[in-house]
Signal recognition particle receptor FtsY
Amino acid sequence: TNPGRSGGGVLGRLFKRGDGAPVLRRTLDDAMLEQIEELLIAADMGVDTALRVTANMAEGRMGRKVSTREIKQLLAAEVARIMESVAKPMPLYPTKPQVVLVVGVNGSGKTTTIGKLAAQFRAAGKSVVIAAGDTFRAAAVEQLQVWGDRAGVPVLTAPEGSDPASLAFEAMTKAQADGADLLMIDTAGRLQNRADLMEELAKIVRVIRKKDPDAPHNTLLVLDATTGQNALRQVETFQKLANVSGLVMTKLDGTARGGVLVALADKFGLPIHAIGVGEQIDDLQAFDPEEFAAALTG
Ligand code: GDP
């Protein structure tokens, strides 16, 4: 897999003349910087981050001749520097159960990510309980059950349309009684009615805190990397709805222009706990900043 980018890096066009003939070295001047900025913006890095990254690349080098290799190395170093500070696995606490609340818009990959995470925790010898908290989408509950079966993890469900908070409370009670290491709670992702969703998430948090005042220990926001700059808006929205502690970026196996990860890291500094690189159960990886920077740069 090639997380962050498929089909070559973002700087491909920089060292080509109009007729497509390759150029070996170019003077690093304003025209070139502008071109780099445009390429980074086209790769979903966002304007602010693209400008900052380009300025850092150029610092002390204006007017010098640079090669493709040098400019790629400069970009890769700059991207890796930004991304290193956010590449952190999800923190694990000794509390039983450690509660992981999973939020994100429908279609972002919440269900799939919960299934993949459950399988990883199981493989690490941990016992897991899943609560299918998106009680308004029967299909979501069914999907989660399929993933629970695959991961060998029990999935607690409630009748369609019932209160997700009571399910969360029940799941918390069961996870405590079973001595489970982790409880993962899926949540609804309907942003159409934010006030409702906010109240729903707040109520889930309230009831699980009756059982453990420190819960949830992690609130994961799942973001689809292919949505580009939309991902930034989703972080802003969900930070208002819930106390987001970390991100999982999905669909980085596709044609995702992974530049949005750099924008996210630069703007919010939230840890990226994992990346989704496919639809199978083992397609969830730790985020590797060096590998990502190399893939993005090409
Ligand atoms: P939810 O609505 O947020 O629960 O999203 P789902 O988990 O149902 O995922 C929506 C779609 O995205 C499904 O078709 C998944 O197979 C797909 N998907 C999820 N994660 C990834 C990923 O990392 N890579 C790819 N290629 N597809 C993914």
The pocket of guanosine-5'-diphosphate is lined by residues 104, 106-112, 140, 143, 189, 250-251, 253-254, 276-279, 283 (CB under 6 Å). The mean pLDDT is 93. The longest helix spans residues 194-211. The radius of gyration is 21 Å.
